Each structure stands twice: as structure tokens, then as C-alpha cells.
Amino acid sequence: MSRPSLEFQQEQERLLESTNSLKARFEQSSTKLRLAQNPVEFAKLEAEESGIDFEDAENRDPGVISTNLAAQTQFLRKLKYQYLEQNAKDRYVKSIVSDIDDAPIVTAEDVKELNAANEDKKARLKAAKTSLAEMHHNIRTLTPLVQEDYDKTKAAIDKVTSLAQKIIDARLALTRLRQTHPHPRLTIAAADQKLADQVEEMQELSDQVEAVRRNVQSSKDELKNGNVDLESLRAERAEIEKLVKNANVGEDDPRIAPLYDWFTASLALHRTMQGLHSSSCPSQNELHLTYSLSPTPPTNNDNLLTMKLVFLPGTRHLAAVDVSGSGVDRADFEELIDSYLQTNDVHGLIGAVLARARRS
To answer: Does the keyword DNA repair apply (predicted)?
Structure first.
């Protein structure tokens, strides 16, 4: 990121200062512009101009005020009429009971002058009322417009202030980043190259994972084929043992040597394929098998796994299995053993236990 030019920074500072000064002047004069928010001042003004006490007109509904004003106007008109009537009666009585010399003489000219003065006062009063009504109408019409302009100006000032604060925060964040990450910084070209290297590395790792999966699948296939061969060899062994038992040959029978060699070779092949280290039958229904967990023949007993298979007497149904060995926890194989005990799959059990033990 390139450093901003000095002229651009000076321009931003000038704009910020002008904005702050405009905000200060606006806040100083804002009390004169809040017309819609000062109904109390308007109520005082109307009360003074209409001659009504402000304490009675304050905080009242406009409809109630209008009704009260009409009632008071009608009452004042009646009071004025009664006053004029009473005054006329009083003057008439005084003029009758008093001496003729002391009685005031009211001529037609005096009446005309009074009527003219009253008409003049009425005209001026009507003009003043019309002007007052126009002024009130203008105030009510312009107040929302002035308030709207004030709200827009205030919103613009707030926006400018927030933008100025964001500019300052961005500058501070940029300064912290420059202090945290001194030169040489990571450029766009270096970042693109690093991304390309990471993509290549991920592709290589994906290829390795795929190769490992293929190797695992091939190993599983080889193990499955080996189990099939083992089953066929076991069947052949059973048949041969049956033939040997039925033949009842002597020690000098020439067929014993080839059979012995074949059996030895088959046993060696099975041990090589499955890693069988030793096997024994402590009883008629129990079989102990010891397997090597490493591909090479073990030099000690640290890398051996022993499985004790117990069958139901007189049947080939698997009853229990015990797994032991150095570094082997039987709890890791309990669920696996239970699943194969239910299906009575001895060969599958041996293959699954060996596969899990050799992976761990």
C-alpha cells in the first residue's frame, strides 16, 4: 500500500477543520432553529397576543383551547353589551335627575366623532388580527420545513463527523500495521507465489493420500486373497489328515515324506503370509495363536499378539476370544470381537484383529 501524498493529507485536514467549525456554529445556533420542539414558547406567544393567561393555556389540547376561546369571546361580547347598556342607563338617569345646566350636552357631532373613532379602531383591530393570523399561518407552515432542513443538516454533520473519525481510525490502524510489519512486507507478487506453492503442496498431499488409499485397498485385497488361500489350505489339510488317519500307513511308507514336506511348506507359507509365530491346542476346544505384528520376524516377545480361541465342546461354534500382547489393550477389540462372535466368523475375526493391531 503506497503512502498518501502530503497534499492529500493537507486537503483532508482542511476539510476536517471546516467541518468541525460548521458543526460548532450550527450547535450554537441550533436553539433558534428548533421551532417544532419548543411548543411552550409558541404557547406563550399566542397567550400574550390573545390576552389569555399562559397558566390556563399551557399543556392543553388545541381543540379544548379553541372551544374555550369561543366561549370566552361570546361571554366578553355579552359583558361588553351589558356594560354599554348599563353605562347608557346610568348616563341617562344622571342626565334626567341632574340639573339641566350641569348635564353634559351630547350632540350629533359628538356621536359621529365617537362612531368614526370606533370604526377606525375596529379597522385597525381587524387589520392587526388579519396580520396576526397570517403570521401564525406562516409559522405553522414554515416550522416543519425549517425542522426538516435542520434534521438534514444535523444528519450531514453527524455523517461528516463519523467519516472524519473513520479516517482517523484508518490512519491509526495503518500506522499500527506498519509498526507491526516492518519492511520487507509481503507484496502482491510474493503472496500470489506463496498461494501457488500452497496449491501445489496441497495437490501433492492429495496425490499422496490417494496413493495411500490405493495401497490400503490393495493390501486389503491381498489379505482377502490370502485368507481364501488359507481356507483352501486348511480344507486340504483336513482332507489329508483324514486320509492319513484312514490309510494307517507304517513308518516306512514312502508317501509320508512327500506329505510331510507338503504340509511343512504349506505351514511355512501360511506363517509367511499371516505372520503366524506359533500355535498350540491346550485342550480339545481351545486354540492359541501367536502372530507377529511386524513384517519381519520378531527378535523378542515385544511385538507379538496372542489370540486364545475357545469353542463350544463338540461344535465349531466360537464361544470366547481373548486378545493379549505387549502394548495391546483388549478394550480396543471388545466391540470388534462381539460383532464377529455373533456371526461365528473365525477367519474374519482373526483378519480384522490383526489389521487393527498392525495399524495401531
So the answer is: no
